[in-house]
Amino acid sequence: xxxxxxxxxxxxxxxxxxxxxxxxxxxxxxxxxxxxxxxxxxxxxxxxxxxxxxxxxxxxxxxxxxxxxxxxxxxxxxxxxxxxxxxxxxxxxxxxxxxxxxxxxxxxxxxxxxxxxxxxxxxxxxxxxxxxxxxxxxxxxxxxxxxxxxxxxxxxxxxxxxxxxxxxxxx
Amino acid sequence: xxxxxxxxxxxxxxxxxxxxxxxxxxxxxxxxxxxxxxxxxxxxxxxxxxxxxxxxxxxxxxxxxxxxxxxxxxxxxxxxxxxxxxxxxxxxxxxxxxxxxxxxxxxxxxxxxxxxxxxxxxxxxxxxxxxxxxxxxxxxxxxxxxxxxxxxxxxxxxxxxxxxxxxxxxxxxxxxxxxxxxxxxxxxxxxxxxxxxxxxxxxxxxxxxxxxxxxxxxxxxxxxxxxxxxxxxxxxxxxxxxxxxxxxxxxxxxxxxxxxxxxxxxxxxxxxxxxxxxxxxxxxxxxxxxxxxxxxxxxxxxxxxxxxxxxxxxxxxxxxxxxxxxxxxxxxxxxxxxxxxxxxxxxxxxxxxxxxxxxxxxxxxxxxxxxxxxxxxxxxxxxxxxxxxxxxxxx
Lengths: 171, 395
Known about the structure:
heterodimer; A: 2 domains; two-stranded antiparallel sheet; 34% helix; extended; disordered N terminus; B: alpha/beta; Aspartate Aminotransferase, domain 1; Aspartate Aminotransferase, domain 2; 2 domains; 12 strands
């Protein structure tokens, strides 16, 4: 974990900014933009990984495409907090399933919101009924299957991918 | 029939824009990386576009007051007061225009008598000189220089001044040079304007895009508010070029005179653009600052790379243009730009399109994404090396 006082510094880190806003820059391109040698960018990326700020790369796929097809669901989970550990132990245990893509502790009507993915509806349903809901401490689950995606990780799915045309030369 | 003879003489005599013929060539080429574009690459932020759509749905399709929607003028007045420290009454000291371009045209037409002289710095935006000519004025250029970062100096204005000069027109930060003026220089210019009884048209369209030291308006100096027409708009900082929306602020009598011209020619700025502009002022600042940050990083990248390639380039403090000297290549700016286009398919604009004092320079806009900028810089470097016939050119 990054100590709290360092978090602001990290957010000001130009390499991190380029990771978030740069839009698929290679490390060589990031080096040019930041005005640093590429080796320094790689070192900083390593450091961000070591600090567990930058956890890893993931492609953003349009899951409605044949090649990437997957069934996804969000599940609201109520669980019993434990003395001493609160929600953390059970949340950690749930998070470790491969089917679980993300897991958050929430305020409000339920405790955990988890995003799961599987190759078929049956597989996801099986995960919920056989694995998740049978865990000790899980009080109830409410599963919502996703029907269609309009925006994925910041990318619009349907919108024309090509940017609006500008005049090639203008005053 | 010779239809040309019907055209007014001062229009016939207007030179064709130096950008126009270059554009024709670039437009026909494929796979060009263009650094020749004088507008943001960002689309207008969605919340602003959405406000325009909402306005359309609500039936906002009518004329507005000639001066523009009062609510927008109030928002403009607050914005100008907050960021430029000059107060203007929304009721009679603010007029909403179709871009700064119309604002400049209104100011020139409202204030110039035939033969009145207008001082303007050069290199400058392409329409300054023709705009003065169209208003039957006489344009008097004041040179700015690379070694000064293309700042405007009172001494140069004084040297160019001649009897009959009525207006000083300036654009700081400047398209194409990115030049700005620090407060000390501005103060001298203000003093000169007061001394010579000049009225100043201050086109501050790039003023949000200043990367060092902040922006100061000439209207804030003693005696200047009453002799300045402050011109601004939404095109650059809010990425709203296609909306064509700007405004002018100034003493009520002058705004009234500009309004007269505006009401008989334009009537009012389009209402949808006015609604979008209101949204930009109310909620657009965060998005604008994020864009500025990107321009800042791109500027540093491009200026470093151009200097590295052997093209001496000052650090532009504002706007989104680098304006490197191409003197080291031994070519003139047109041959350089055409050669670069042909050899490496990178478009930059010859500096002479912005006036005689732009000779020996080219304008490279950095309102383009990082990968394209990097690729363009690689190509420019290769082109310059080829011209030099050696692996490195001395800058």
